[in-house]
Amino acid sequence: MELMYQSFVFGSQVSKVAPITCKLPEEKCKRLRALLGTVKLSLLYKASVHGYKASAFHQRCDRQGPTLLVAYNRSGYIFGGYTSVDYARSGQYVTDQEAFLFSFQGKIPVCIKINSGHFARYDDAGGPNFGQQLYFCYKNQPVVLNHRGSAFSVNTVTMYGNDTQLTECEVYKVKQIPQSSAINKQWRNVLWTANRRAELMGLIRNHKPVMPSVSRARILMIGPVGAGKSSFFNSINSIFMGRITSKAISGSGGTSLTTQFRTYPIVDHHEGKPLPFVLCDTMGLEDQSGAGLDIEDISSILQGHVPDRYKFNPMVPFQHNERRVYTPASLQEKIHCVVYVIDATKISLMSDKLQEKLASIRRKVNLQSIPQIVLMTKIDEACPHVQKDLQSVYVSSYIKSKVQEVSSGLGVPVSCVLPVKNYSQELELELNCDVLLLTALQQMLNFADDYLDDAGRVEHDFL
Q: What is the pTM of this model?
């Protein structure tokens, strides 16, 4: 990171003293840079050196272009905000749709996007503020003040632990690095073209499972509440319907909106025929014991014993029909590929209990030799750079770090972690979104074929 030096002029000589060191740890600096795209951060202002006075801040930060403010308090919180519009003491409200606040939750910065960019800042001669709502170095003192406002949805408990006393405040100049000299290279190759979308849709329409006895691949979706399992089905259904649909109940809430085991076949609107796969949706996983999907139900689902529309009871695992227990399900009824759906914005916030549940499920799936994929959703919410341009997903070092984090946490290869964006607020289909979703679905069908091929070999050897 580039650092600022203090210089003093004696006659015709310039003497440089020791550099002003950044308090921001390098690892956290990398995370913040990833949020902003391909950028360079240069330290402009450090309150403990230059003073907490607004005049000192403006002297060093005015007319410097986009800036990132990083604050530290006595409780160890690191938080702050970004603005793409430079400070100028204009006495006017500043419109900035790109402004955001952040707070580190562990190693990962959680972003608070602006609700309305029209009042992102009030550009006066006072200290830095965001939305005339969050003030840093308030009244020339080492404090942060939260004033009621609507520009940002601020929770002061999670953002800075309600500890208003600052131990440091730094401001960095944010300079975009031209793409031609960008360090970040594309780490996966994707063709973002209408021809590629049409090719993927054709491959999926014409897919035939490798086992003649199986007409459709069965793909099981597992994940925490609100991760986007039902939304993935709705998104795939939308693509093949040619319009946005909402057949499965989806949304955000504290508890699972899916209470039944659902098997969702999809009909291709173009040809009016069922597609060669079924997406199986489950109740969401929850932290608490006795809430959400029971882990014991997973084995029953994998083995094909749970019927469509079975209503889950978190307190009581699925009760096998005695006749079904002694009559093994056919290969057609079993699960052929398991997909873990993980919210990219909550990876670092996942509780130990939830991680333990996922690890336990992974062990059960491994015992059945069923291939597994991770679908990483909400990548646009996790990285502002990707939100601006979805094609940046495989250039974003931040998304790459999240993929690696998921891979390490769940114990799956990096190649099995697939970033996607589900349709949520759109009214029309979008090419880049379709390409990511269809690429993920095609990989699921490939993995299901791997399982069926292996099952066929075992069956042949047995006979």
A: 0.62
